[in-house]
Amino acid sequence: MGIxxxxxxxxxxxxxxxNKGIKEIYTTLETRxxxxxxxxxxxxFINGFLTVVFGGSTGIxxxxxxxxxxxxxxxxxxRLMPLAFKKACICAGVVAGVxxxxxxxxxxxxxxxxxIAKKFQKKVVVSATVSALIAFFFIQYVGSPYLxxxxxxxxxxxxxPYMMLLAVLAGLLATYFTQIVIFCKHWFSGISNNFLRVNxxxxxxxxLIVGFPSLYGDSYHGLVDMLRTFTFSGIxxxxxLPLTLAALFLLKPIAASLTLGAGGDGGVFAPSIVxxxxxxxxxxxxxxxxLGFEFLVVNFALIGAAAxxxxxIHGPMTAIFLICSLAPNGYQLLFPLGMAAFxxxxxSKKICSYNVYSYQG
Length: 361
Fold this sequence. Notes:
Distance between the termini: 45 Å
CATH topology of the largest domain: Clc chloride channel
CATH superfamily of the largest domain: Clc chloride channel
CATH architecture of the largest domain: Orthogonal Bundle
Strand content: under 5%
Largest sheet: none
CATH class of the largest domain: Mainly Alpha
Structural class: mainly alpha
Number of helices: 15
């Protein structure tokens, strides 16, 4: 229902103009005369809402980022700021959106600098800082609940090698995710019949959700349920539950890719976090069950989430501080999160470079 509604909205309300995620921001920044049109604000908000609330397996992060970037772009376009401040205005909008979503002003600031601007520029840094401060005071006033209500705990040095091994697996998971997204978008673009494309994607995602309800929407609810189950049950779990968890971290990228390919609105933010956290939970469970460790499941869930997100968006600093803000006391894990995020990012970057080299060769 959600993807079908988006299709008709795109056709009759937004005049067949498609949403292309963060790529739209990059395209706008590359050309001074190119702008994010006003319709991107309601289009991404409405389509992102319809996608997630009806079960589309993505998140609202990318929809929000493009919408807030459009607000910044429109302020620039309407000459409310000097002409040299286009990137600064867009980044200010991005900072505000990410800060409110994750409750992390530092994470929002880093995302704008590291992922959107991709370099330090004085105007961008100043505008992003002002935006982060305003957004910070806003969330202090309205409140910003943790996405993961379980508190992170003090980590031990003996766990670090296993955290690094998890980071390697997370880097591979992010690469797998990226390739699945590219494949699905290419495959769906080859279907000329709109009715077939929309309904084929909707049915495929629906079937996956029926089999695995934790894939519904952004899956944060499913992640919290799994964390509680594996934390309080210890190793005394039904044999099928670890297999279900393994299926979830492999199927979440597929469900997200099918959602996006069929016309849903969103990106890889939430799916990367959730898939990586599922991987971390399973990794900790296997180590505790078969190797005799007593690793804290929530710590490894956050490590997996940070590493996968860092590799997926190529923003390790952003991933570190955003994941620190997901759970109470998350900053206790700052060092292992940093090690894992940069390790996964470097691995993913190396694999991507190798693929490009092989293709060119």
